[in-house]
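re: ur question from earlier - yeah i can do the single chain one, its not a big deal. heres the input i used so u can compare w yours
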Amino acid sequence: MTLIADIEAEQAAFTALRRDIHAHPELAFEEHRTSELVAAQLEQYGLEVHRGLGRTGVVGVLRGTGQRIEGAAERRLGLRADMDALPMPEHNRFAHASKHPGRMHGCGHDGHTTMLLAAAKHLSRHRDFAGTVHFVFQPAEEGGNAGAKAMIDDGLFERFPCDEIYGMHNMPGFAAGHFAFRKGPAMASSNRFDITVRGTGGHAAQPHKAVDTIVIAAEMVGVLQTLISRHKNPIDIAVLSITQIHAGDAYNVLPGEAVIRGTVRTFSTQVLDDIEDQMRRVAETLPQVHGGSGELHFHRAYPPLVNWPEPTEFAMQVAREAFGAGRVTADTPQHGGAEDFSFYLERVPGCYLFLGNGEGAHRESPYEGMGPCELHNPNYDFNDALLPIGASYWVKLVQAFFKRG
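and the output i got, formated as C-alpha coordinates:
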Protein backbone atom coordinates (compact mmCIF):
# COMPACT_ATOMS: atom_id res chain seq x y z
CA MET A 1 0.00 0.00 0.00
CA THR A 2 1.41 3.36 -1.06
CA LEU A 3 0.44 6.37 1.05
CA ILE A 4 1.37 9.94 0.22
CA ALA A 5 4.20 10.87 2.55
CA ASP A 6 3.15 14.37 3.58
CA ILE A 7 -0.44 13.24 4.23
CA GLU A 8 0.86 10.38 6.36
CA ALA A 9 3.15 12.81 8.20
CA GLU A 10 0.14 14.95 9.19
CA GLN A 11 -2.03 12.09 10.40
CA ALA A 12 -1.90 13.28 14.02
CA ALA A 13 -3.16 16.73 13.07
CA PHE A 14 -5.99 15.35 10.97
CA THR A 15 -6.88 12.83 13.68
CA ALA A 16 -7.25 15.75 16.09
CA LEU A 17 -9.44 17.56 13.56
CA ARG A 18 -11.62 14.48 13.01
CA ARG A 19 -12.07 13.99 16.73
CA ASP A 20 -12.98 17.64 17.20
CA ILE A 21 -15.75 17.23 14.62
CA HIS A 22 -16.82 14.00 16.32
CA ALA A 23 -17.08 15.74 19.69
CA HIS A 24 -19.33 18.46 18.24
CA PRO A 25 -21.93 16.63 16.12
CA GLU A 26 -24.59 18.62 14.30
CA LEU A 27 -27.81 17.35 12.73
CA ALA A 28 -29.18 17.84 9.22
CA PHE A 29 -29.10 21.47 8.02
CA GLU A 30 -27.72 22.54 11.43
CA GLU A 31 -24.04 21.96 10.55
CA HIS A 32 -23.09 25.59 11.21
CA ARG A 33 -19.96 24.92 13.29
CA THR A 34 -18.84 22.08 11.03
CA SER A 35 -19.35 23.96 7.77
CA GLU A 36 -17.54 27.02 9.14
CA LEU A 37 -14.67 24.81 10.29
CA VAL A 38 -14.51 23.24 6.82
CA ALA A 39 -14.66 26.63 5.09
CA ALA A 40 -11.92 28.04 7.31
CA GLN A 41 -9.65 25.08 6.60
CA LEU A 42 -10.20 25.39 2.84
CA GLU A 43 -9.48 29.12 2.94
CA GLN A 44 -6.32 28.41 4.90
CA TYR A 45 -5.26 26.01 2.14
CA GLY A 46 -5.80 28.75 -0.45
CA LEU A 47 -8.97 27.42 -2.08
CA GLU A 48 -11.84 29.54 -3.36
CA VAL A 49 -14.65 28.90 -0.88
CA HIS A 50 -18.42 29.13 -1.34
CA ARG A 51 -20.75 28.83 1.65
CA GLY A 52 -24.47 28.29 2.02
CA LEU A 53 -25.34 25.86 -0.79
CA GLY A 54 -28.22 23.69 0.38
CA ARG A 55 -28.37 25.94 3.47
CA THR A 56 -25.19 24.74 5.20
CA GLY A 57 -23.16 23.15 2.39
CA VAL A 58 -19.66 24.29 1.41
CA VAL A 59 -17.85 24.02 -1.92
CA GLY A 60 -14.10 24.52 -2.25
CA VAL A 61 -12.75 25.24 -5.72
CA LEU A 62 -9.17 24.34 -6.62
CA ARG A 63 -7.84 25.17 -10.07
CA GLY A 64 -4.81 23.29 -11.30
CA THR A 65 -1.82 24.96 -12.89
CA GLY A 66 -0.96 22.16 -15.32
CA GLN A 67 -0.76 22.76 -19.05
CA ARG A 68 -4.02 22.00 -20.83
CA ILE A 69 -3.97 20.48 -24.29
CA GLU A 70 -4.61 23.21 -26.83
CA GLY A 71 -8.23 23.25 -27.95
CA ALA A 72 -9.36 20.85 -25.22
CA ALA A 73 -12.23 21.83 -22.93
CA GLU A 74 -11.48 22.41 -19.27
CA ARG A 75 -12.17 19.30 -17.22
CA ARG A 76 -13.99 19.51 -13.88
CA LEU A 77 -14.07 16.86 -11.16
CA GLY A 78 -16.35 16.70 -8.12
CA LEU A 79 -15.49 14.99 -4.82
CA ARG A 80 -18.11 14.84 -2.08
CA ALA A 81 -18.09 14.31 1.69
CA ASP A 82 -21.11 14.43 4.02
CA MET A 83 -20.98 16.42 7.27
CA ASP A 84 -24.09 15.68 9.36
CA ALA A 85 -24.47 13.51 12.45
CA LEU A 86 -27.32 11.33 13.73
CA PRO A 87 -30.03 12.04 16.34
CA MET A 88 -28.90 9.24 18.66
CA PRO A 89 -27.03 8.89 21.96
CA GLU A 90 -23.33 7.99 22.13
CA HIS A 91 -22.18 5.34 24.60
CA ASN A 92 -18.44 5.71 24.02
CA ARG A 93 -16.38 6.94 26.95
CA PHE A 94 -13.27 8.25 25.17
CA ALA A 95 -12.26 11.90 25.36
CA HIS A 96 -13.68 12.86 21.96
CA ALA A 97 -17.15 11.43 22.58
CA SER A 98 -20.09 13.68 21.74
CA LYS A 99 -20.49 16.73 23.97
CA HIS A 100 -24.13 17.07 22.91
CA PRO A 101 -26.58 14.52 24.34
CA GLY A 102 -28.78 12.89 21.73
CA ARG A 103 -26.43 13.67 18.84
CA MET A 104 -23.61 11.48 17.57
CA HIS A 105 -21.37 10.93 14.57
CA GLY A 106 -22.51 7.32 14.35
CA CYS A 107 -21.92 6.93 10.62
CA GLY A 108 -18.40 8.27 10.12
CA HIS A 109 -19.21 11.53 8.35
CA ASP A 110 -16.60 13.17 10.58
CA GLY A 111 -14.03 10.88 8.94
CA HIS A 112 -15.35 11.46 5.42
CA THR A 113 -15.08 15.23 5.91
CA THR A 114 -11.57 14.99 7.32
CA MET A 115 -10.26 12.72 4.54
CA LEU A 116 -11.49 15.14 1.90
CA LEU A 117 -9.98 18.10 3.75
CA ALA A 118 -6.62 16.29 3.92
CA ALA A 119 -6.76 15.65 0.17
CA ALA A 120 -7.63 19.29 -0.50
CA LYS A 121 -4.66 20.43 1.56
CA HIS A 122 -2.23 18.21 -0.32
CA LEU A 123 -3.59 19.14 -3.74
CA SER A 124 -3.46 22.84 -2.87
CA ARG A 125 0.32 22.40 -2.55
CA HIS A 126 0.60 20.25 -5.68
CA ARG A 127 -1.57 21.86 -8.38
CA ASP A 128 0.23 20.29 -11.32
CA PHE A 129 -2.98 19.06 -12.96
CA ALA A 130 -4.91 20.61 -15.83
CA GLY A 131 -8.44 21.27 -14.64
CA THR A 132 -10.60 22.17 -11.65
CA VAL A 133 -11.56 20.15 -8.59
CA HIS A 134 -14.79 20.96 -6.74
CA PHE A 135 -14.68 19.74 -3.13
CA VAL A 136 -18.34 19.33 -2.12
CA PHE A 137 -19.03 19.25 1.62
CA GLN A 138 -22.69 18.31 1.90
CA PRO A 139 -25.19 18.69 4.74
CA ALA A 140 -28.13 16.48 5.65
CA GLU A 141 -27.42 13.07 4.15
CA GLU A 142 -29.06 11.25 7.06
CA GLY A 143 -32.72 10.66 7.76
CA GLY A 144 -34.11 11.25 4.30
CA ASN A 145 -33.30 14.96 4.45
CA ALA A 146 -31.66 14.90 0.99
CA GLY A 147 -28.94 17.48 1.42
CA ALA A 148 -27.62 16.41 -1.99
CA LYS A 149 -30.89 17.41 -3.62
CA ALA A 150 -30.88 20.69 -1.67
CA MET A 151 -27.43 21.53 -3.05
CA ILE A 152 -28.49 20.56 -6.58
CA ASP A 153 -31.63 22.67 -6.28
CA ASP A 154 -29.40 25.54 -5.14
CA GLY A 155 -27.52 25.34 -8.45
CA LEU A 156 -24.58 23.13 -7.50
CA PHE A 157 -23.91 21.81 -10.98
CA GLU A 158 -24.71 25.09 -12.72
CA ARG A 159 -22.27 27.01 -10.54
CA PHE A 160 -19.72 24.20 -10.18
CA PRO A 161 -20.01 21.96 -13.26
CA CYS A 162 -18.62 18.44 -12.89
CA ASP A 163 -17.75 16.06 -15.71
CA GLU A 164 -17.71 13.28 -13.10
CA ILE A 165 -18.34 13.07 -9.35
CA TYR A 166 -17.16 10.58 -6.71
CA GLY A 167 -18.08 9.82 -3.12
CA MET A 168 -16.77 7.44 -0.45
CA HIS A 169 -18.23 5.82 2.68
CA ASN A 170 -16.49 3.85 5.39
CA MET A 171 -17.81 0.34 5.99
CA PRO A 172 -17.37 -1.68 9.20
CA GLY A 173 -17.02 -5.40 8.58
CA PHE A 174 -14.69 -4.84 5.61
CA ALA A 175 -10.95 -5.08 6.25
CA ALA A 176 -9.48 -1.69 7.11
CA GLY A 177 -8.13 0.00 4.00
CA HIS A 178 -9.92 -2.41 1.66
CA PHE A 179 -11.82 -0.76 -1.23
CA ALA A 180 -15.17 -2.11 -2.42
CA PHE A 181 -17.00 -1.23 -5.65
CA ARG A 182 -20.06 -2.25 -7.60
CA LYS A 183 -21.11 -1.18 -11.09
CA GLY A 184 -24.78 -0.43 -11.70
CA PRO A 185 -27.39 -0.51 -8.92
CA ALA A 186 -25.38 -0.56 -5.69
CA MET A 187 -27.72 0.82 -2.99
CA ALA A 188 -31.50 0.75 -2.66
CA SER A 189 -34.05 3.49 -2.97
CA SER A 190 -35.62 4.67 0.28
CA ASN A 191 -39.36 5.36 0.40
CA ARG A 192 -41.98 5.82 3.12
CA PHE A 193 -45.73 5.30 2.98
CA ASP A 194 -48.83 6.05 5.05
CA ILE A 195 -52.13 4.26 4.33
CA THR A 196 -55.20 5.67 6.03
CA VAL A 197 -58.19 3.34 6.31
CA ARG A 198 -61.53 4.99 7.15
CA GLY A 199 -64.67 3.21 8.25
CA THR A 200 -67.43 3.73 10.79
CA GLY A 201 -66.69 3.56 14.47
CA GLY A 202 -68.96 1.70 16.85
CA HIS A 203 -69.42 -0.37 19.96
CA ALA A 204 -67.29 -3.53 20.15
CA ALA A 205 -70.44 -5.48 21.13
CA GLN A 206 -72.20 -4.43 17.92
CA PRO A 207 -69.66 -4.88 15.07
CA HIS A 208 -72.47 -5.28 12.54
CA LYS A 209 -73.29 -1.58 12.96
CA ALA A 210 -69.70 -0.47 12.23
CA VAL A 211 -67.13 -0.70 9.45
CA ASP A 212 -64.18 -2.18 11.33
CA THR A 213 -60.98 -0.47 10.22
CA ILE A 214 -58.79 -2.84 12.23
CA VAL A 215 -60.09 -5.87 10.33
CA ILE A 216 -59.54 -4.03 7.04
CA ALA A 217 -56.01 -3.00 8.06
CA ALA A 218 -55.13 -6.56 9.14
CA GLU A 219 -56.31 -7.93 5.81
CA MET A 220 -54.43 -5.20 3.96
CA VAL A 221 -51.11 -6.13 5.60
CA GLY A 222 -51.31 -9.60 4.10
CA VAL A 223 -52.39 -8.34 0.68
CA LEU A 224 -49.54 -5.83 0.57
CA GLN A 225 -47.01 -8.63 1.06
CA THR A 226 -48.36 -10.39 -2.05
CA LEU A 227 -47.22 -7.40 -4.09
CA ILE A 228 -43.67 -8.64 -3.41
CA SER A 229 -44.27 -12.40 -3.48
CA ARG A 230 -46.83 -12.67 -6.30
CA HIS A 231 -46.96 -9.48 -8.37
CA LYS A 232 -43.27 -8.63 -8.75
CA ASN A 233 -40.86 -10.45 -11.03
CA PRO A 234 -38.88 -12.75 -8.68
CA ILE A 235 -35.56 -11.65 -10.19
CA ASP A 236 -36.18 -8.03 -9.16
CA ILE A 237 -35.18 -7.15 -5.61
CA ALA A 238 -37.66 -5.26 -3.44
CA VAL A 239 -38.62 -5.12 0.23
CA LEU A 240 -41.95 -3.86 1.59
CA SER A 241 -41.99 -3.62 5.38
CA ILE A 242 -44.96 -2.68 7.57
CA THR A 243 -43.46 -0.95 10.59
CA GLN A 244 -46.47 0.71 12.26
CA ILE A 245 -50.21 0.13 12.72
CA HIS A 246 -52.15 2.71 14.72
CA ALA A 247 -55.84 2.45 15.59
CA GLY A 248 -58.15 2.79 18.54
CA ASP A 249 -58.00 4.13 22.08
CA ALA A 250 -60.43 1.99 24.08
CA TYR A 251 -61.08 -1.71 24.71
CA ASN A 252 -64.75 -1.54 23.77
CA VAL A 253 -64.73 0.87 20.82
CA LEU A 254 -64.19 -0.03 17.17
CA PRO A 255 -62.12 2.85 15.75
CA GLY A 256 -63.28 4.74 12.69
CA GLU A 257 -59.75 5.11 11.37
CA ALA A 258 -56.58 3.04 11.16
CA VAL A 259 -53.16 4.03 9.83
CA ILE A 260 -50.57 1.66 8.34
CA ARG A 261 -47.01 2.90 7.87
CA GLY A 262 -43.82 1.39 6.48
CA THR A 263 -41.08 1.49 3.91
CA VAL A 264 -40.36 0.22 0.42
CA ARG A 265 -36.86 -0.34 -0.95
CA THR A 266 -35.93 -1.27 -4.52
CA PHE A 267 -32.88 -1.15 -6.78
CA SER A 268 -34.91 -0.01 -9.79
CA THR A 269 -37.14 3.01 -10.30
CA GLN A 270 -39.37 1.01 -12.66
CA VAL A 271 -39.94 -1.65 -9.99
CA LEU A 272 -40.70 1.13 -7.51
CA ASP A 273 -43.21 2.70 -9.91
CA ASP A 274 -45.00 -0.63 -10.29
CA ILE A 275 -45.13 -1.28 -6.53
CA GLU A 276 -46.45 2.21 -5.78
CA ASP A 277 -49.20 1.82 -8.40
CA GLN A 278 -50.21 -1.56 -6.98
CA MET A 279 -50.15 -0.26 -3.38
CA ARG A 280 -52.44 2.61 -4.38
CA ARG A 281 -54.90 0.19 -5.95
CA VAL A 282 -54.95 -1.99 -2.81
CA ALA A 283 -55.23 1.00 -0.46
CA GLU A 284 -58.15 2.50 -2.36
CA THR A 285 -60.15 -0.59 -3.38
CA LEU A 286 -59.75 -3.14 -0.55
CA PRO A 287 -61.54 -0.99 2.07
CA GLN A 288 -64.46 -0.58 -0.35
CA VAL A 289 -65.15 -4.32 -0.15
CA HIS A 290 -66.00 -3.76 3.53
CA GLY A 291 -67.83 -0.49 3.04
CA GLY A 292 -64.91 1.75 3.97
CA SER A 293 -62.40 3.90 2.12
CA GLY A 294 -58.64 4.26 1.99
CA GLU A 295 -55.88 6.43 0.64
CA LEU A 296 -52.12 6.10 0.16
CA HIS A 297 -49.52 8.80 0.75
CA PHE A 298 -46.22 7.63 -0.79
CA HIS A 299 -43.04 9.63 -0.12
CA ARG A 300 -39.96 8.97 -2.25
CA ALA A 301 -36.90 9.93 -0.22
CA TYR A 302 -33.81 8.72 -2.11
CA PRO A 303 -33.72 7.02 -5.54
CA PRO A 304 -31.60 3.89 -6.11
CA LEU A 305 -27.87 4.61 -6.21
CA VAL A 306 -26.65 3.48 -9.63
CA ASN A 307 -22.92 3.67 -10.31
CA TRP A 308 -21.87 4.49 -13.86
CA PRO A 309 -19.83 1.63 -15.41
CA GLU A 310 -16.87 3.57 -16.86
CA PRO A 311 -16.27 5.88 -13.86
CA THR A 312 -16.55 2.86 -11.56
CA GLU A 313 -13.98 0.94 -13.60
CA PHE A 314 -11.71 3.99 -13.53
CA ALA A 315 -12.08 4.39 -9.74
CA MET A 316 -11.30 0.69 -9.24
CA GLN A 317 -8.20 0.93 -11.38
CA VAL A 318 -6.94 3.88 -9.32
CA ALA A 319 -7.35 1.81 -6.15
CA ARG A 320 -5.60 -1.21 -7.67
CA GLU A 321 -2.62 0.84 -8.84
CA ALA A 322 -2.32 2.75 -5.57
CA PHE A 323 -3.01 0.01 -3.02
CA GLY A 324 -2.79 -3.30 -4.86
CA ALA A 325 -5.39 -5.55 -6.47
CA GLY A 326 -5.64 -7.59 -3.29
CA ARG A 327 -7.21 -4.62 -1.52
CA VAL A 328 -9.94 -4.10 -4.13
CA THR A 329 -13.27 -5.92 -4.47
CA ALA A 330 -14.97 -5.30 -7.81
CA ASP A 331 -18.36 -6.92 -7.24
CA THR A 332 -19.48 -5.97 -3.74
CA PRO A 333 -22.99 -7.23 -2.88
CA GLN A 334 -25.79 -4.71 -3.18
CA HIS A 335 -26.53 -2.76 0.00
CA GLY A 336 -30.12 -2.35 1.18
CA GLY A 337 -29.40 1.02 2.74
CA ALA A 338 -29.98 4.27 0.89
CA GLU A 339 -27.68 7.21 0.07
CA ASP A 340 -28.56 10.62 -1.33
CA PHE A 341 -25.40 10.55 -3.46
CA SER A 342 -27.87 8.88 -5.83
CA PHE A 343 -29.21 12.35 -6.72
CA TYR A 344 -25.78 13.38 -8.02
CA LEU A 345 -25.49 10.21 -10.10
CA GLU A 346 -28.84 10.93 -11.74
CA ARG A 347 -27.27 14.14 -13.09
CA VAL A 348 -23.55 13.42 -13.50
CA PRO A 349 -21.48 10.29 -14.27
CA GLY A 350 -19.62 8.97 -11.27
CA CYS A 351 -19.15 6.32 -8.62
CA TYR A 352 -19.83 5.79 -4.93
CA LEU A 353 -17.35 3.44 -3.25
CA PHE A 354 -16.74 1.89 0.15
CA LEU A 355 -13.60 1.91 2.28
CA GLY A 356 -13.28 -0.81 4.91
CA ASN A 357 -13.37 0.50 8.49
CA GLY A 358 -12.14 -2.74 10.08
CA GLU A 359 -13.33 -6.27 10.78
CA GLY A 360 -12.75 -6.37 14.55
CA ALA A 361 -14.02 -4.35 17.48
CA HIS A 362 -12.86 -0.76 17.55
CA ARG A 363 -10.25 0.64 19.87
CA GLU A 364 -11.67 1.50 23.30
CA SER A 365 -14.99 -0.15 22.47
CA PRO A 366 -16.77 -1.70 25.46
CA TYR A 367 -17.56 -4.59 23.12
CA GLU A 368 -13.92 -5.59 22.63
CA GLY A 369 -13.74 -9.05 21.11
CA MET A 370 -17.39 -9.09 20.05
CA GLY A 371 -16.88 -8.19 16.38
CA PRO A 372 -17.17 -4.94 14.44
CA CYS A 373 -19.23 -2.05 15.70
CA GLU A 374 -21.69 -1.31 12.92
CA LEU A 375 -22.80 2.04 11.57
CA HIS A 376 -25.58 3.83 13.49
CA ASN A 377 -24.49 2.02 16.67
CA PRO A 378 -24.02 4.07 19.88
CA ASN A 379 -20.53 2.56 20.30
CA TYR A 380 -19.35 3.22 16.74
CA ASP A 381 -16.26 5.32 16.02
CA PHE A 382 -14.47 6.07 12.76
CA ASN A 383 -11.12 4.30 12.39
CA ASP A 384 -8.50 7.07 12.28
CA ALA A 385 -6.03 4.77 10.51
CA LEU A 386 -8.18 5.32 7.40
CA LEU A 387 -7.52 9.07 7.24
CA PRO A 388 -4.27 8.92 5.25
CA ILE A 389 -5.60 6.02 3.17
CA GLY A 390 -8.78 7.80 2.08
CA ALA A 391 -6.99 11.11 1.55
CA SER A 392 -4.23 9.46 -0.50
CA TYR A 393 -6.87 7.72 -2.61
CA TRP A 394 -8.62 11.02 -3.36
CA VAL A 395 -5.34 12.63 -4.42
CA LYS A 396 -4.43 9.72 -6.68
CA LEU A 397 -7.92 9.74 -8.20
CA VAL A 398 -7.60 13.47 -8.98
CA GLN A 399 -4.18 13.00 -10.56
CA ALA A 400 -5.33 10.02 -12.63
CA PHE A 401 -8.52 11.80 -13.73
CA PHE A 402 -6.69 14.71 -15.27
CA LYS A 403 -4.04 12.47 -16.84
CA ARG A 404 -6.81 10.63 -18.70
CA GLY A 405 -6.98 13.53 -21.13
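Residues 190-302 form a domain with the Alpha-Beta Plaits fold (CATH 3.30.70.360). not sure if urs matches, ping me
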